[in-house]
Queue: 2 jobs
Job 1
Amino acid sequence: MSETVIRFENVTKIYKLYSSTRKRLLGIFIKKVPYKKKKAVDEVSFTVNRGESVALFGKNGAGKSTVLKMITGVVFPTSGDIEVKGRVSALLELTSGFDMEFTGRENIYLKGHILGLKDEEIKALEDTIIEFSELNEYIDQPVRTYSSGMRARLGFAINVNIKPEILIVDEALSVGDAPFRKKCQKTVNEIINKDNVTLLFVTHQTAVAEEFCKRGIVMKNGKIVFDGPVEEASEYYKKMNAGKK
Amino acid sequence: MSTIKGFFKSYKDAFLVNIKEHTQHTPQVVKLSFADLKKTYHGSALGWAWAVIKPVVTIFVYWFAIAVGLRQGGDVDGYPYILWLISGIVPWFYMGDTITGGTGCIRKYSYLVTKMQFPVTTIPTFTNLSRLYVNIVITLIVVAIFWIGGYPPTLYLLQLPLYILFMFLFFNAWSLFSGLISAISKDFANLIKSLNIAVFWLSGILWNIENVADNKFLYSLMMLNPVTFICYGFRNCFVNHVWFFEQPQRLLYFIGWYLVLAFLSLWAYKNLRKEIADVL
């Protein structure tokens, strides 16, 4: 049995919804200011082992993104325990997280520095990333001049090439044209199989998920309603959408 | 008893996180500070020149208004008004920019909070460092201007790094506090922006606080102002030739303010760190 890399134990995330930002500001100082509670994730428990590839299904608002953000360490749970081991590379909204004024190349370095890589390490990856992104001469232009497809390509190229241990893909594979998409899928498959990377994959396209993943989790209203082999999970999800469950 | 212990422990923990994030990410902080600096002056034709043009224009305007317009430009403490003005206004360039810039720092780098795991307490540090580099260069230019003006460097200039350090630490605590609050609410940033001008005019940067020395109450109020402490600290180095330990009362006030601000910044971190990603 391989080691557990992600462990959720009774994790609940409640977003505080204030009726205005003024109330939110007051809420910092006065705990009594009223707000609505929105349970995005409700008592969720699961574990993921190293090398597993898990697809996460669910309608909009089911809590998938919140779960991914909690694994990334961006969002904190209201209660419950989360344990994550290893470098997490998240492809959450590929087009953001860039500095618009910097060139593509400078952004590669910036991202690398933020992740704590040394200059030499980044230099070693630089060419691979540029080649993968197919940006060619555009790499030395400011990112603000890029099209959204170019940004997504660069984002994807950086994230899969910095040798992640846990890769989180949030709808990201639906970017770019068909050949680039193919290439992304091939690369993701490669790093899962070769480097024993753990993959968490969020999508609405069950067919794509079945290509990558062996296990599927279905979420509904912040709860896990199904956890098992991906084929059964996608079947369950399709039925759920058809209104049968 | 246990609640008091828990209270202290929560602040101690927040403090230790702050220290740990800085020591474990020192190379990143330095790299990001240079990236921030580059970004500030990036993409304009004159580029780096703006770092000097802006203060020069500001100083000229104030000098013109006070010395030419109001005819109040007589010598101060034996120094021409313009030199006296420069020595106190240069640290203000850092402080004024940091009062507002620090307030906006977490919003400016919101992608570091919402898109990846990043040591949030270092965001004020690297954005402030980037401003500090510019300010240190300008301070060195001021040393040269004094020299050219016939006032060669004295031993008192040796305490300049200390005042710069005081200034940096103080406004770093400020930036963490106000940056976190304004991440929750934009109103706070607007409030600070409008207060910034008031702070400038009330801090004795353009006029000598010794002018109000006969009003004891007002004078001690002035001394309480940390911005005044830094500005007159710089003037102690350039003009008045006083050591910082010769004015222990001012120093104690300043340290007192610093402790209050450090406490507030830890309080804000403790309460808001987990919330800002939900809001930004």
Job 2
Amino acid sequence: MAESFWIGLIFAAPILGFLINGFNFRSKNYKLAGTVGTLAVATSFVSALALFSKLVSLPEAERVITHSFFQWISVGNFHVDASFLVDQLSGVMILIITGVGSLIHLFSIGYMSHDERPAKYFAYLNLFIVNMLLLVLGENLLILFVGWEGVGLCSYLLIGFWFSDKEKAAAGMKAFITNRIGDAGLLIGMFLLFMLTGTLSVTEILAQGPFATEVTFGIVSFACLALFIGATGKSAQIPLYVWLPDAMAGPTPVSALIHAATMVTAGVYMITRLNPVFMAAPISMEIIAWVGALTALFAASIGITQWDIKKILAYSTVSQLGYMFLALGVGSFNGAMFHLMTHAFFKALMFLGSGSVIHAMHEEQDIRKMGALKKYMPITHVTFVLGWLAIIGMPPFAGFFSKDEILWMSWHSPMGSKALWFIGLIAAGMTAFYMTRLMALTFWGKSRVPENVHPHESPISMTLPLIVLGVLSVVGGWLGIPHVIGDVFGHIPNILEHWYGPKIVPIPGLEQAVASHEYALMTISVLVAGASAFTAYFWYTKREDIPKAISEKAKPLHSLVFEKYRVDEFYEAKIIKPAIETGKGLWAFVDVAFIDKISYWITSYIKDSGGGLRLLQNGNLQQYAFYIVLGLLGSISYLILG
Amino acid sequence: MPDLSQYDVGLSHYLLLSAMVFCIGLVGVLVRKNTIVILMCIELMLNAVNITFVAFSRYQGNNDGSIIVFFVMAIAAAEAAVGLALIVAIFKRFKEVNIRFFEHLKG
């Protein structure tokens, strides 16, 4: 069938699902709503598969499917088409979005079975899929922006889904407002790109390349930096990451879909989409690399101290996104997209696994009240273990290949440095520590489950997505096996690198990899991760007194990290409060004293003149009769005199 | 028998009389507060017009004007019936028939 049909269907199905569930939003029939929602996304997934297979069947140089539905905006010689672009980058993205999305929809049916408003939930979720697809498929940056705002809206709606709880409603607002700040950056970046190239169409912008590298900080660097600020908002990087941990107030499948697998990777995708432009701005790239590396380290360290299972996963997500930006910054767009994919698998898996645990524990999220859940929830446990091995980077699980590519490139690429690699390595060690701590406290060790809670394995609709994602977390990394390992096993190609190749600008001055160096770095990172994982396992299952003693000894440091470096408090005191004070000042002095006065003066003037005129029409019949007489006299005198 | 030819009553006399009666009625409508009096003044104005009609009818030597007078009288009767009904209603409500109370009709 024609490409336009599949592109239409990929959007139409979730839109239809959104409309059906949206009009039926009072329905409490979670099975019906869930089936409609899941089928809608599954249909999208089928369309994505069709598009992807079409893409594969095309010759390598022509792997682009575009279709323009109509002209959206036409002002003077500025035109925006509602046109969509499926290529190597967006092709993989739509598979991830609709594939992982379908699994999470399926999982949600069981998870939301006790909820009051399941139809509304599925309507929002389908709307999210629509917007995410707009974001990745949009051929024009304006369409991307529509999707970008749309996913932000859905994220807000779903974080605050249980809005009767004030804290959760506030978390939704925080996410929305923080994202607005980033969006301002994105808009400025888009304006600058438009100024530079005269178009917002991605294909047209990239067709104007190759771009001359900017040695000093010029307009291209500024545009890239502005776009990156947009990315820090959506993809939760320093300094705008604060909304993501709070976003865990939403239902857990939402955290899996929006705040781990898809939406938060929008920034990574956007930068990769425009990678030839970013490669022309080495200064901005260096900033991106450093922000990414520091975010990875910073968030991982917070993850070590948290007790809320979802908060740990949230900081882990921030940290893994940091890795992706590190990869972007050192020019390894392939590594970033690779880690984006594997992270989507294993982090969605772990979020859904934590959802399964939370569901079984009757909405308990504190891992201090769990322990030894292995024997109650065997499937959740086994799949969680797969995700755990993937994220801490044990070969041959998915995370090993993607994380190692990032670490290797940050060492090897001329745009990277040893310091970046070292920060990445430390963060990897911390990742292994906090994830093992999570595993040990939740699934292993002694049971600390309260007596009135009886954990149970989740129904098949919830475990099936876990199993599928578990398998993907194992095999997902095999798509990007590095050459040094591939050569040993008889020339296994690095499929992903080959696939993305035509879309990605090669790093200038990249030397041939030295196999022994690459092996050495791999060994180091696996050893560091293994050692820290073992330490965490030993401490939290056998000797819980050791971490307690350490946190007692380093009390000031521990409480600083536990309170998330008090960044929220800092923002509150230094940014939000002054902003509110300024607002109040403007209100009192500008609005009340000046603008209001003008409008009051105008209204009172109009009111007075109206009051004067009102005397003419006061309801006194005799006065009206007098007007008639006056009119009569007037007409007569006109007839006689005129 | 005195000679009345020098006092011959012509068309202009009728019209003058009519104008005077009309003005009396008009002023009464504009200044009086008692609704019954106002109704009577309206009656005066209508009859002033009637005089004009009859005068012209006689002057022109046909009966067209006289016929219209019957219509005017019929309408005046109908108007008086409606007006008096309103006055009765107002009187029942306010125990007075001041024209100002008719403002309440605007709701």
